[in-house]
Recover the amino acids of this structure.
């Protein structure tokens, strides 16, 4: 019996070595950790339960039958906890066949995906792999398809997070693409459908992997990734931090922990946040940081479409999603990029029962051919659609401008927000006074225009016209914003909305 | 006594005058410009009058508007503060003509001390020790050389109407005198419209020591000891203290008597300051007399217990000085840091913007010391481009110089400012500087001790260990809460954390085991255990607590997976890891920061006034590349090495943020 137990230990040791010392060293030299080291960082100490350690590939083509059979087959899977909460994980092992996906490799991932969905617990995928195992041909492709299908089945049911920590190319990119969040490690990770060699052959472009699909590209240009981190350690510890914000699934509600911050904390400095000059920008992140518990804010897509800010914070120890126009970037205007970014975030929050707090200072939609040709109508509609279909608590604060159609879009009363407040500095109108006067009165001498502008300003450049109509529930002091939001969210905890049955909506994609 | 006074100033000094007036039961009137509508002094005063646009020339320097404000509000007297109109004879005269009392000296005294040459003559006549030199008008370079030969080298050639270092030249030889004379003369003409220059002995390693005097309208004048203000940069005082570590009682009395003699000679009848330059051998020479309240007057107030503003108000009202010279006792030591909105790591360039965080240390007793903070700003306020960038004057008073410095260091650690750059890291570093602690000062201190400029010091030794202990305690607080997150796996033990924590503090590493004993978190480092008690909670920018019973404060800001800490003039990011995390973190590559040498970055937020080069141009080190205007100062940005301009990204008129790329080099 003892022999058999020892044999198990030997086999385990072998499996844990993955591709062997030499490859592990090479992995470290590249500034990357191994699949198992990454899991150690992601999960609570000693909480990892590994599955399928001894799985091996069954390929007999192109020399694979003679190739060494390495237990695990390029991916480490299992489950563990993050601060005591169950999380499923798979971690591609670059030291084994370059982490490439075989039929059996896919089966390991599928098993974990099925379990995560059955257990209604988050799943985190750590990517560092070369794509499909070409020797296996269609068997590998079939494997991908099975993974994709499960990504979709789990979407909106359990949080799915992907961290790109090395190459991620070809078929490998589509599983992350269908998860909720993608994070990348700067300088060591890249993602693309086709790599630089193929690009060169097909389009004659010469491009490096970093230029084609590095963290910078995907966090600033393509918006494929939601954030990037300096190295593996920083990335994984931040994923732990993100998981602390997220509910385990779409029915349990947000996690809660004791807040060190009192809900009725007033912040007098907010009374001077909005400058006297309506054209002077201010940093909406200051308002966010001074509103949420302890100034703790996990920003999503910080480097993309900076004119809108999205991310997670907490009020009274419970997660909220924050959406805010950012006057510091393009005056906080809504353009296609900002609309898409916010729409996706709003839908995420709604899917997972995370209440949304919206801070509004929006001068309207961005005009121009570039925007119209790019489909601003449909992109803008995504955000409108996303807010309109929300059933989670929606609290909206208008700090300054809420102009035109963008006023409606930004979680207005009309599209279903529950509690709508405005600061005294709010201006809720179809457009700025100058533009309005030009259209209404069409010309006139400077003096008349000035008088008419003043009249329009006095009438509409305040929150009171909207308040008179009940579009704004109350005009609040900026310094009491946190208390007002906390009270509103407390009241809204029991919000319940029924929607008519439908197969699914038809959001303008 | 007056029933209402107007304060013709802004910022901390206006607030400071209002405080005393209020205590004396006097109503106060503030004046303000467009930029100061929401300023603290406006808030604090009983009434406020708007006097014009943001630039001082159109508001705080408008004599007519201030006189009108007095009439409108019925203010009987005006306190001018410092700067602005405080030393304008015309202002004092205008008030007099309108029957308003100037809380300051009579116009004659202002006039007598206003001109550098005239004041020196008056000083010499009053037998005040003056720097050997020639006070007459110097006709020619030859004449200057003759005089310099008589005085002995080195000599200084100075503009008569000058100030701020303009039109000043140091000459070590006859040749340098001849050249310097011509330069100083033309600079004086262009800067002050007055080309008179004079020559005097140049004191090597000088110290700046000044005597506070106080006179009344009845011919009484006393002195309130001295202040030393040797720590200066670009002739701007940064740190002040009272008394001076240089002086002994005899020298103090000698200087005091001379200062009083001078004040009496010009019928001085308010608070004023006689400035001296002192040699390391305690020799001292009259520099000038400031006929106003000085910025650094709080250190004198702290060691004498006398409220100078109150005294000014009383003597202006006509009261006799209630104090006699023998009543003035110096008690303990006071140290003052001027907290400026400027970036010490970028050659002290001014910084403007919103005070996102402004939490000064609490005033009042702190152990054996007393903390005082004179300020004119508040959290959410704006540091504008229009005025002096001083945010606050932080003063600590204790029985000894050593204790006052320690208290100052602690108070600086507890002073939280975000949103703008500020010089707290610099003054905090000086508080730890052995030469400062030894009191071995000279006006060249900053240039000599920070020849390469200032960069944030990394923590070492004891300081580093304290910071590591604070980091572990903060991390522990967060971990304890993580244990309480909802929806943990049921039927299993609660999540636990490793007791052994490893701190990566900048380049330093520490390991310590955490445990809780009573109300303290005990951290067992290999060499010693530290008991930490604190009620800090996440989100607070200042950590207050005790380490082994010793009171400590530190700056704490959250950064990814850790904290950015500042303590005792040292700064570092701290990551607190488990052993395994630390092992794996050690495998992470050290990334080299992007080579910014290839770019010209905008060193401060400002407006591009001009670009001096074009694409493809080869530029030698030291040649101008661009000019950026900030705070009305035109800053010429020069090439640091020989470069070729590859790309120009900014153009004239662009408003740039700090670190915005102006041009790229090949």
């Amino acid at each position: 019996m003892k022999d058999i137990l020892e044999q198990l230990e030997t086999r385990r040791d072998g499996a844990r070595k993955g591709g062997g010392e030499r490859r592990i060293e090479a992995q470290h030299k590249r500034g990357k950790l191994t699949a198992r080291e990454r899991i150690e960082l992601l999960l609570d100490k000693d909480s990892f339960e590994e599955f399928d350690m001894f799985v091996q590939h069954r390929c007999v083509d192109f020399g694979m039958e003679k190739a060494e059979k390495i237990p695990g087959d390029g991916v480490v899977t299992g489950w563990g906890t993050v601060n005591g909460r169950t999380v499923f994980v798979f971690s591609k092992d670059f030291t084994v066949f370059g982490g490439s996906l075989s039929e059996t490799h896919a089966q390991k991932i599928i098993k974990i995906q099925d379990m995560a969905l059955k257990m209604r617990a988050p799943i985190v995928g750590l990517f560092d792999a070369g794509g499909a195992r070409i020797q296996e041909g269609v068997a590998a492709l079939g494997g991908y398809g099975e993974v994709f299908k499960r990504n979709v089945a789990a979407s909106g049911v359990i949080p799915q997070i992907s961290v790109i920590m090395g190459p991620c190319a070809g078929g490998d990119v589509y599983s992350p693409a269908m998860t909720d969040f993608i994070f990348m490690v700067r300088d060591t990770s890249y993602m693309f459908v086709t790599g630089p060699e193929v690009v060169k052959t097909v389009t004659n472009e010469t491009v490096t992997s970093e230029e084609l699909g590095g963290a910078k590209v995907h966090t600033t240009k393509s918006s494929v990734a939601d954030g990037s981190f300096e190295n593996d350690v920083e990335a994984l510890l931040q994923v732990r931090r993100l998981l602390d914000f997220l509910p385990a699934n779409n029915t349990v509600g947000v996690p809660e922990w004791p807040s060190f911050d009192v809900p009725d904390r007033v912040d007098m400095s907010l009374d001077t946040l909005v400058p006297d000059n309506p054209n002077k920008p201010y940093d909406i992140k200051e308002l966010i940081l001074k509103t949420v518990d302890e100034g703790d804010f996990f920003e999503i897509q910080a480097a993309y479409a900076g004119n809108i800010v999205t991310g997670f914070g907490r009020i009274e120890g419970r997660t909220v999603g924050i959406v805010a126009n950012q006057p510091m970037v393009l005056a906080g205007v809504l353009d296609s990029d900002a609309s898409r970014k916010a729409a996706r975030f709003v839908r995420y929050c709604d899917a997972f029962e995370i209440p949304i707090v919206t801070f509004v200072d929006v001068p309207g939609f961005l005009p121009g051919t570039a925007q119209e040709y790019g489909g601003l109508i449909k992109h803008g509609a995504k955000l409108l659609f996303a807010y309109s279909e929300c059933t989670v608590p929606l609290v909206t604060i208008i700090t300054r401008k809420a102009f035109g159609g963008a006023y409606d879009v930004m979680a207005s009363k009309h599209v279903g927000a529950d509690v709508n407040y405005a600061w005294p500095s709010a201006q809720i109108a179809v457009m700025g006074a100058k533009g309005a006067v030009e259209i209404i009165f069409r010309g006139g001498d400077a003096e008349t225009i000035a008088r008419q502008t003043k009249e329009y300003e006095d009438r509409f450049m305040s929150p009171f016209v909207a308040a008179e109509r009940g579009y704004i529930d109350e005009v609040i002091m900026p310094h009491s914003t946190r208390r007002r939001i906390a009270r509103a969210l407390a009241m809204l905890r029991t919000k319940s909305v029924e929607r008519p049955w439908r197969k699914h909506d038809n959001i303008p994609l | 006594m007056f029933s209402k006074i107007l304060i013709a100033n802004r910022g901390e000094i206006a607030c400071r005058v209002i405080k005393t007036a209020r205590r004396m039961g006097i109503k106060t009137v503030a004046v303000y410009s467009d930029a100061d509508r929401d300023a603290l002094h406006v808030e604090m005063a009983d009434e406020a009058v708007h006097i014009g646009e943001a630039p001082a020339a159109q508001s705080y320097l408008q004599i007519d508007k201030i006189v009108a404000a007095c009439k409108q509000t019925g203010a009987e007297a005006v306190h001018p503060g410092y700067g602005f109109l405080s030393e304008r004879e015309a202002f004092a005269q205008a008030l007099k003509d309108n029957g308003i009392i100037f809380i300051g000296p009579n116009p004659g005294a202002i006039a007598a001390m206003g001109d550098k040459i005239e004041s020196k003559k008056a000083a010499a006549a009053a037998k005040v020790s003056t720097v050997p030199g020639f006070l007459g008008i110097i006709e020619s370079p030859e004449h200057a050389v003759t005089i310099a030969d008589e005085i002995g080298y080195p000599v200084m050639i100075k503009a008569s109407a000058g100030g701020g270092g303009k039109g000043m030249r140091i000459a070590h030889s006859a040749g340098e005198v001849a050249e310097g004379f011509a330069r100083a003369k033309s600079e004086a003409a262009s800067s002050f419209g007055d080309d008179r220059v004079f020559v005097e002995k140049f004191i090597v390693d000088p110290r700046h020591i000044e005597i506070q005097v106080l006179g009344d309208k009845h011919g009484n004048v006393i002195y309130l000891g001295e202040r030393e203000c040797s720590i200066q940069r670009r002739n701007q005082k940064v740190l002040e203290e009272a008394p001076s570590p240089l002086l002994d009682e005899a020298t103090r009395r000698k200087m005091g008597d001379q200062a009083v003699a001078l004040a009496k000679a010009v019928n001085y009848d308010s608070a004023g300051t006689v400035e001296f330059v002192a040699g390391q051998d305690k020799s001292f020479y009259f520099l000038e007399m400031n006929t106003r309240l000085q910025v650094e007057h709080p250190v004198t107030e702290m060691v004498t217990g006398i409220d100078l503003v109150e005294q000014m108000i009383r003597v202006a009202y006509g009261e006799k000085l209630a104090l006699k010279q023998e009543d003035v006792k110096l008690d303990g030591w006071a140290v003052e840091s001027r907290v400026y909105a400027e970036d010490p790591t970028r050659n002290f360039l001014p910084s403007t913007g919103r005070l996102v965080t402004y939490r000064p240390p609490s005033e009042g007793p702190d152990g054996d010391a007393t903390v005082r903070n004179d300020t004119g700003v508040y959290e959410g306020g704006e540091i504008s481009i229009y005025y002096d960038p001083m945010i606050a004057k932080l003063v600590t008073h204790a029985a000894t110089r050593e204790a006052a410095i320690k208290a100052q260091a602690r108070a600086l650690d507890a002073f939280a400012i975000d949103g703008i750059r500020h010089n707290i890291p610099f003054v905090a570093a000086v508080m730890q500087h052995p030469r400062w602690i030894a009191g071995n000062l000279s006006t060249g201190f900053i240039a000599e001790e920070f020849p390469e400029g200032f960069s944030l010091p990394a923590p070492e030794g004891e300081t580093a260990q304290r910071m590591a202990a604070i980091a572990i305690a903060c991390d522990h607080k967060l971990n304890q809460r993580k244990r309480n997150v909802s929806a943990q796996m049921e039927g299993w033990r609660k999540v636990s954390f490793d007791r052994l924590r490893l701190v990566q503090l900048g380049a330093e590493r520490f390991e310590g085991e955490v445990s809780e004993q009573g109300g303290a978190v005990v951290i067992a480092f290999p060499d010693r255990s530290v008991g930490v008690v604190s009620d800090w909670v996440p989100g607070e920018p200042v950590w207050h607590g005790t380490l082994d019973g010793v009171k400590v404060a530190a700056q704490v800001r959250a950064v990814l997976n850790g904290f950015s800490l500042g303590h005792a003039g040292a700064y570092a990011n701290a990551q607190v890891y488990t052993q395994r995390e630390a092992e794996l973190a050690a495998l992470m590559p050290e990334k080299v920061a992007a080579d910014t040498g290839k770019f010209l970055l905008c060193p401060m937020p400002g407006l591009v006034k001009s670009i001096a080069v074009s694409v493809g141009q080869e530029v030698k080190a030291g040649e101008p590349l661009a000019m950026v205007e900030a705070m009305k100062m035109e800053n010429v940005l020069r090439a640091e090495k020989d470069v070729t301009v590859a790309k120009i990204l900014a153009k004239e008129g662009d408003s740039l943020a700090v670190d915005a790329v102006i041009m790229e080099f090949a």
